[in-house]
Amino acid sequence: MFAYLVRRLFLMLVTLFGISVVIFFLLRIVPGNIVDILFAAAGYVDPADKANLEKELGIDQPLIVQYWHWISGFLRGDFGYSYVSEKPALQEILPRIPITARLAGLALLFSASIGIPLGVISAVKQGTRLDYALRVVSLSGLSLPSFWLGLLILTASVAMFGQIPIFNPNPQTWLEAFATYAVPAAAVGFRSAALTMRITRSSMLEVLRQDYIRTARAKGASDAAVNYHHALKNAILPVITVIGIEAAFLIGGLIVTETVFNIPGVARFLVEAIRWRDYPIVQNLVMLIAVVVVSANFIVDMLYAVFDPRIRYTD
Amino acid sequence: MRSVRALAAMAALSLLAISTVTFAGEPKQGGILRMYHRDSPGNASIHEGATYSLNVPFMPVFNNLVIYKQDEAQNRMDNIVPELAESWAWVSDNKTLTFKLRQGVKWHDGKPFTSADVKCTFDMLMGKSQQKFRQNPRKTWYDQVNDISTNGDLEVSFNLKRPQPSLLALLASGYTPVYPCHVSPGDMRTHPIGTGPFKFVEFKANESIKLTRNTDYWRKGRPYLDGIEFTIIPNRSTAILAFVAGKFDMAFPTEVSIPLLKDVKSQAPNAVCVVEPNNVATNIIVNSSAPPFDNIDIRRAMALSLDRKAFISIMFEGQGDVGGTMEPAPAGLWAMPKEMLESIPGYGPDVNANREEARKLMQKAGYGPDKHLAVKVSTRNIPVYRDPAVILIDQLKSIYIDGELDVVETANWFPKIARKDYMLGLNLTGNAVDDPDQSFYENYSCGSERNYTNYCNKEIEKLFDVQSQETDVGKRKKLVWDIDKKLQEDVARPIIFHARTGSCWQSYVKGVTVMSNSSYNGYRYEDVWMDK
Asked: Looking at B136, B155, B185, which one is the last position of a domain?
């Protein structure tokens, strides 16, 4: 188990190093930098002013020097300054993390709490009207872009209730606070819930055909005990994998959801920072997201080992 | 007796009605004006930007020496009023503009405002001071200013190289606030200090901008509002829905398109919406330094192919104007008369005849039904640029030109134009001030940084100077018309149309005036109040 842990940790560090190199150089390959954008916005360019600004921001230095400055700073916890707001990058990033974390957490909770039970029901009731209805729901969830779904929710809210559930930084009641996150979380989590439901269903169906399930039934175990104690416990591994992957992919869905619901989270902030080529923000934020995703995968790997002793022993 | 009573009752009712109207029209103090903002401005320094995304939230923080009257829609020389200046006078053969400054004005940090602040600001704009702006997009506005001199704390003079009556108009723009000497340009980008009706509270990028009432404002009794809060909502659908739902008191000025306006009016019938021109011209930039547009015949053919009314009809449901460089009348002050405009090739009402002439020119250049000219039409990847570019491509087909749309991200647009890496480009030009000096020198003068096409005509350049020095408005107008006509005939930067846009606010918001010949100058908001 210890060797397994050490190997996974080492792989994690190598992955993070690779990501840092990729982020840094990909950003530089994209045409234009902050100085180009600032002058484009001003509709003129003065070569001397441009050179001064590039020097001031340090983007006139060789790439390898820029990389070293960034990565050594990141390791020391010095994230530099945003090129746009001229405030410390960490000061810009940190307040946005809890907002996105809450949203992502709620979306994942929505995904698991809706997707797993409905997936189990769909599998257990295979071939019934209920199964067909649930499969239509899951297919809809996979087909509807969260951007479109979000706009639909907003339009319907305004038309039906005269209210719009966009982000409210100062909610007056707990209901407002809940709506601030719950509605967009449902919009972004609907797709994840649909995916979780499908994976749970197919995994359950596979397990329900196993000999040991038949044995359990033969021994007189109740339906609930068979479905939830024997079958679900063994069918859950691929579902955990999918939820882990979805946690990483959620950032993509959150970008549009944060835009539609006007939530000042990190996902929308990241897109804006890319638009401005605000390297300190983009690099550090992507790196932080990478750390979270790689750590989430690491935790999922550890959970595998906890849930399936064979992984522990073979590794 | 009954009729007397009835008359008395009617009189009482009338009096009540009059008193109610008077009461409702009386400005009320208080309230926070909530407005959405269309995007997150890069910083808070008006002098370092060239977008009204900066002027709208930060103009209320500052004062100018002089300003266009905020309750009149049209910016004119005769409605420029003193602000930090109490009065002004032209002296020395119109080569010196002297301002007497207001006494007792304080910056938001409590320090006194003096003539030194005015000198600092304009020295910095002219690039003559130790402290520098990171960007200085309107440096050319002050090309004719030799220096700024002060006489005590309350008098300042602009000493010019030659007379330039329009300097006063430039100083009245929302782009010309006075900055404090004691605050660095860097600090002004993040935490602006002004003398204006509202104090800066905070700017959270991509989130919000907050201003609060300046209780120590020099204009007693103003502002009416306790503050202004801008919520940044880049998604237009979300923003409009939020306005309709009553989350905001005002939509971002001039940002409601004509089709969206219909939605707003149907969903929020009580909202007040106005449609005004905004002195933004959609135009074509032509790379005349390389084939095929180095051939004047092809350039002229392209100009002749334009069906301007079709652009306006498709994009704005007819709510737009055809004109030259200067904004069309009645909102624009310097527009050519209709008959003069229609005498310019391509502006005549018979589009088919124009195109027939264009085809002849194309055939003369070696193109025809069997040999089309393939061109790339470059434009920024923003709907207001992209949509007319698509219509342009369609219209060019009628004269044997096959256009291919080349959408360019904003970051790459200006570098691409600057290195002349384009054939045709569809561009928008916003004019901060409805004055020929701002428009001609900036966009058509030889060597100007914003003269993207490098159009250079020394004869016209001389005329720019002649009109610029002319103090007789009538004579100046005629000079301006001739110049504008010549610019269109030279296909310097063919103007397609001048757009009109909508602005909306809730019915209880009072004292809002949308300017009709500039979208940069009307956001002081000290006269705005809320009747609720």
From this structure: B185
Q: Is B205 on the interface with A (CB under 8 A)?
A: yes
Instruction: Tell whether the torsion through CA atoms of B28, B30, B31 and B32 is positive or negative.
Output: positive
Domains of chain A: 96-272+296-307 (1.10.3720.10)
Domain hosting B464: range is 278-500
User: The whole model's pTM is what?
Assistant: 0.87
Q: Which residues, in sequence order, are CB contacts of A228 under 8 Å at separation 6+?
A: A120
Residues sharing a CB contact under 8 Å with residue B404, sequence separation 6 or more, in sequence order:
B374, B375, B376, B377, B393
> Distance between the two ends of chain A, CA-based, in angstroms?
7
Mean pLDDT of A235-256: 82
- What span, in angstroms and rounded, lies between the C-alpha atoms of B312 and B314? 6
pLDDT in tens, B60-73: 999 999 999 999 99
Domain boundary among B185, B218, B242: B185
Distances from the Cα of A303 to the Cα of A82, A115, A203, A229, A314, angstroms? 38, 20, 18, 18, 15
Within an 8 Å CB–CB cutoff, is residue B498 touching chain A? no
A2-35: pLDDT as tens digits = 777 888 889 899 999 999 999 999 999 888 889 9
B42 CB neighbours in chain A (<8 A) are 38, 41, 84, 276
CA distance A154 to chain B (A): 8
Q: Is A125 exposed, middle or buried (0-12, 13-18, 19+ CB in 10 A)?
A: middle
Query: ipTM score of the complex?
Result: 0.83
Please report which helix (H) or strand (E) contains residue B228, including its range. Answer: strand B227-232
What pLDDT, in 10s, does the model give residues B80-122?
999 999 999 999 789 999 999 999 999 999 999 999 999 999 9
CA distances (Å), B124 to each of B121, B146, B491, in order?
5, 13, 36
| Upstream peptide bond of B163 is cis (omega within 30 degrees of 0) | no
Q: Hunting for tokens 């993040």 — which residue is that?
A: B190
Domain count, chain B: 2
